[in-house]
């Protein structure tokens, strides 16, 4: 048996004070090491076994587990560290075992009924590996567990700390939330409104409610359960729009559960202006108004602490115990015991029914309250960045809801309504009803660009690839993460402060960088090494780039509902600002793989800030920059002033190469969805030719099902990443066959990758191998091709894939791209034109040098690296502070730094150090 010993650390290097809804992470495993997830167990820092739920996130081609999901419950204090080990080491008695009515099933045995996990369809209730039809027996854990009982179309979830009833159909996501046998919330529902004009507060606002039409139990415990709900919003006229997916994630022993809400905007930008989007719960209130409590998070951990009818600050003092009890959320003494005649006079104290917090921008919130709907709002406070959590309840129970990224995702809001009645409403607004309507129209009128000639001419000045009708937001999406926490009574504000911290910054376990490196996963990278001055200088540059972008997010306020998570593409040193308003120079939309740069940087450093920057980018680029419905479903959009504005709709943006790392490290179901929804994206070439405007044979070429022009760079790398992800996650044989088949075809092409483009048969999933030409794009390798080919060659070398000729074709491309024209002509018959991005491509040369053990080629790679990026000069690594009045507020700038160069320089530095670091000094400028 292969020894498994994978250390896990908390992302922030310290155990959190609570894990809210448990914790989930992923760990990599060598091929053949683990055939069933049941072979894994978990130990805490003291070496004691910890109950854990394990399942396969992905498998190797031989069927062994490649990445395993690990879930821990919330029934114990978190350990400082953990280790994933062989289950026999974790406990000879099998502490992770689950019991089944038919006997005892060791951990993971249920999953191992299938060689590979299968993703549940919309009709079945399933675990991550197989399918549990409705009514399947529950799983029982030796310790605290999550149970899920089918109830008609819905489910009854019990974590041991709370019980949640899910109707499974109709207007409510959640029917009831109970804690200690008492219902503390009901009717959890999605709300929205829209209007037909963009003017604020138009009189035609139409309200809608989300209706659930599908309910699937994706994971059935024992320590983690996941319920997926799907549906659409319906208005009073019967219109359905805004399709949504909501996942409720439960953990054993946790009263808090996560709610992950994703929706697709499928409206008409010219007539559908969203005016609100929120999640509301009804909270029963049973006690007198003075024992009903509001807690609303301000900034930096602060809270508003008030009661519906306050007993502090009055002309008559009810007594210190009364005042203290109300502020602490405890039952006040009986009114008859109040001092100062306050019992008799209390009828004159107004009851405050409604509270409202609005975060309409990243730097300011307002907080108000009123006594009734027909009375004015009274100012409470103003502040900076609210932590985005509100609680309402009384001494018999209540509910808190928090939104991750609350102020960063503005315009947001928190509402409590009717707190003076027996049923208050607590609403978390993802788009505040007091904000300007969401306006997704294209930002200019086209400027007269009616044909390709005009559009290509305009590209020369603003770098914007415009085409009428293509700048639509129809089909883009957005994801929010919330925490929902019931309480048996109003909690101490310190408990809510902990809840806020865990909501704003989710506790996350990750393998150590050393463990990830030992597993040799996700590309070519090494751990930081500062043992020589030359290496240290490059590590300093890598750190500078990461620090600079992390700082730019806040300095440049890269926030907002549709923007949060992305970065800008190019800089304008004259205005001292990023080119937010200039065509294709604005939002980056994954151009030249900043996603891969950030994730690879995290793998080797373990930096928490880099992980979160990468995670936010994964959320954004996967949702907002990709179409999930409509004619371009499966395609992403090139960089633009608006994320959906460019007419270049391509797989290079939607590629799973940018999502796999997040899924493998977290087990996140939504990220898995984003990758798997692309499995048929090869069909997009039938609907849209990505190079239609610049194709030399544009007049002759028309997309045909049996002969689709597919580029071997940005196009095939995205398809390969898609097929690989689908195959390793679900075992889809169609994706396997298309991946391996096209690899063999590339190997059979006379010029391999230098062919540039091949004709693809959509029905067979194969390339025509007769094309014989040399045609190269400098963009081919910089959208994930390097990384996916590295993985595929490793699979070939390990005997996991049989694709004759592919390895040689890739090594040829890596070896010759930066070779001399004479060397290229000698081997290819022609010297390809369009050889650019030398620094970015130095990592290809480094890969060839590493594979061949060729030091001279390694030196050539380093010389190309030090020649510099496309626009990057020494000023790119020198931050200069610019002060008012030349700018709105103090900012740092690196005058020659563009995100293209930052991403590719980062990747080239990391990969070159890993592959040919021993030749660094020889390849440096002035080296002899």
UniProtKB/TrEMBL annotation:
Superkingdom to which the source organism belongs: Bacteria
Pfam families in the cross-refs: PcRGLX_1st, PcRGLX_2nd, PcRGLX_3rd
Annotated stretches, region: Disordered: 91-135
InterPro entries per UniProt: PcRGLX/YetA-like (IPR045793), PcRGLX/YetA_2nd (IPR048330), PcRGLX/YetA_3rd (IPR048331), PcRGLX_1st (IPR048329)
Residues covered by the PcRGLX/YetA-like C-terminal alpha/alpha toroid domain: 507-919
Transmembrane spans: none
Domain PcRGLX/YetA-like N-terminal RIFT barrel: 6-85
Domain PcRGLX/YetA-like central beta-sandwich: 151-499
Protein name: Tat pathway signal sequence domain protein
């Amino acid at each position: 048996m292969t020894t498994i010993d994978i250390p896990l650390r908390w992302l922030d290097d310290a155990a959190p004070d609570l894990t809210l809804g448990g914790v989930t992470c992923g760990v990599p495993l060598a091929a053949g090491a683990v055939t069933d997830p049941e072979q894994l167990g978990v130990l805490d820092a003291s070496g004691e076994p910890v109950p854990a739920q394990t399942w396969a996130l992905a498998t190797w081609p031989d069927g062994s587990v490649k990445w395993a999901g690990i879930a821990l419950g919330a029934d114990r204090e978190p350990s400082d560290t953990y280790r994933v080990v062989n289950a026999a080491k974790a406990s000879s008695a099998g502490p992770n075992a689950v019991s089944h009515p038919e006997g005892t099933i060791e951990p993971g045995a249920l999953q191992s009924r299938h060689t590979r996990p299968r993703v549940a369809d919309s009709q079945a209730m399933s675990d991550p590996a197989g399918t549990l039809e409705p009514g399947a027996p529950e799983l029982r854990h030796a310790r605290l567990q999550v149970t899920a009982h089918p109830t008609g179309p819905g489910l009854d979830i019990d974590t041991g700390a709370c019980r949640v009833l899910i109707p499974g159909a109709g207007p409510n996501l959640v029917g009831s939330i109970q804690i200690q046998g008492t219902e503390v919330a009901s009717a959890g529902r999605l709300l929205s409104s829209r209007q037909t004009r963009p003017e604020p507060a138009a009189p035609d606002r139409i309200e809608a409610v989300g209706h659930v039409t599908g309910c699937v139990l994706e994971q059935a415990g024992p320590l983690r359960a996941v319920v997926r709900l799907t549906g659409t919003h319906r208005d009073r006229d019967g219109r359905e729009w805004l399709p949504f997916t909501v996942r409720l994630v439960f953990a054993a022993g946790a009263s808090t559960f996560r709610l992950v809400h994703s929706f697709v905007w499928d409206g008409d930008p010219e007539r559908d202006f969203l005016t609100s989007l929120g999640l509301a719960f009804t909270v029963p209130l049973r006690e007198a108004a003075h024992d009903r409590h509001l807690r609303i998070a301000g900034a930096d951990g602060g809270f508003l602490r008030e009661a519906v009818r306050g007993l502090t600050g009055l002309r008559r003092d009810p007594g210190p115990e009364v005042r203290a009890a109300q502020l602490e959320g405890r039952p006040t003494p009986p009114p008859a015991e109040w001092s100062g005649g306050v019992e008799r006079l209390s009828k004159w104290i107004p009851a405050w029914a409604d509270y409202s917090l609005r975060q309409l921008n990243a730097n300011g919130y307002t907080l108000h309250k009123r006594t009734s709907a027909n009375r004015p709002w009274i100012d409470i406070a103003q502040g900076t960045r609210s932590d985005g959590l509100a609680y309402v309840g009384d001494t018999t129970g209540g509910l808190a809801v928090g939104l991750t990224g609350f102020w960063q995702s503005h315009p947001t809001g928190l509402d409590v309504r009717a707190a003076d009645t027996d049923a208050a409403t607590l609403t978390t607004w993802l788009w505040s009803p007091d904000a300007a309507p969401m306006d997704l129209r294209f930002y200019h009128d086209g400027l007269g660009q009616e044909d390709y000639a005009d559009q290509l001419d305009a590209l020369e000045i603003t770098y914007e690839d415009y085409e009428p009708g293509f700048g639509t937001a129809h089909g883009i999406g957005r994801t929010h993460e919330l925490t929902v926490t019931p309480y048996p009574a109003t909690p101490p504000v310190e408990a809510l402060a902990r809840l806020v911290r865990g909501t704003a910054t989710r506790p996350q376990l990750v393998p150590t960088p050393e463990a990830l490196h030992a597993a040799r996963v996700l590309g070519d990278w090494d751990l930081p090494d500062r043992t020589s001055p030359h290496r240290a200088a490059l590590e300093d540059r890598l750190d500078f780039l990461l620090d600079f972008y992390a700082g730019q997010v806040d300095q440049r306020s890269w926030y907002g509902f549709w923007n949060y998570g992305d970065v800008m593409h190019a800089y304008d040193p004259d205005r001292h600002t990023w080119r937010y308003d200039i065509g294709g120079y604005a939002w980056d939309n994954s151009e030249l793989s900043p996603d891969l740069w950030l994730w690879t940087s995290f793998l080797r450093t373990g930096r928490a800030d880099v992980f979160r920057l990468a995670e936010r980018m994964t959320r954004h680029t996967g949702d907002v920059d990709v179409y999930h419905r409509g004619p371009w479903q499966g395609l992403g959009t090139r960089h633009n002033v608006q994320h959906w504005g460019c007419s270049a709709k391509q797989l290079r943006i939607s590629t799973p190469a940018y999502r796999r790392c997040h899924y493998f490290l977290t087990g996140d179901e939504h990220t898995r969805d984003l990758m798997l929804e692309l499995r048929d994206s090869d069909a997009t070439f039938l609907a849209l030719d990505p190079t239609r405007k610049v194709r030399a044979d544009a007049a002759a070429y028309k997309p045909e099902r049996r002969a689709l022009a597919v580029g071997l760079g940005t196009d095939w790398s995205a398809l390969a990443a898609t097929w690989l992800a689908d195959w390793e996650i679900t075992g889809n044989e169609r994706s396997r066959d298309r991946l391996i088949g096209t690899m063999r075809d590339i190997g059979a092409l006379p010029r391999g990758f230098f062919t540039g483009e091949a004709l693809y048969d959509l029905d067979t999933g194969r390339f025509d191998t007769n094309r014989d030409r040399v045609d190269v794009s400098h963009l081919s390798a910089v959208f994930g091709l390097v990384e996916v080919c590295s993985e595929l060659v490793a699979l070939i070398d390990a005997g996991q894939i049989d694709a004759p000729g592919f390895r040689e074709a890739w090594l040829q491309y890596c070896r010759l791209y930066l070779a001399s024209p004479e060397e290229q002509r000698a081997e290819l018959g022609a010297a390809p034109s369009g050889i650019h991005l030398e620094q970015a491509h130095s990592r290809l040369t480094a890969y060839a040098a590493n594979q061949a053990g060729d030091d001279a080629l390694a030196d050539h790679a380093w010389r190309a690296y030090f020649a510099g990026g496309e626009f990057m000069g020494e000023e790119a690594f020198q931050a200069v502070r610019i002060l008012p009045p030349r700018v709105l507020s103090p900012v740092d700038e690196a005058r020659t730094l563009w995100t293209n160069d930052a991403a590719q320089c980062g990747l080239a530095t990391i990969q070159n150090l890993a592959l040919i670091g021993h030749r660094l000094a020889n390849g440096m400028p002035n080296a002899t």
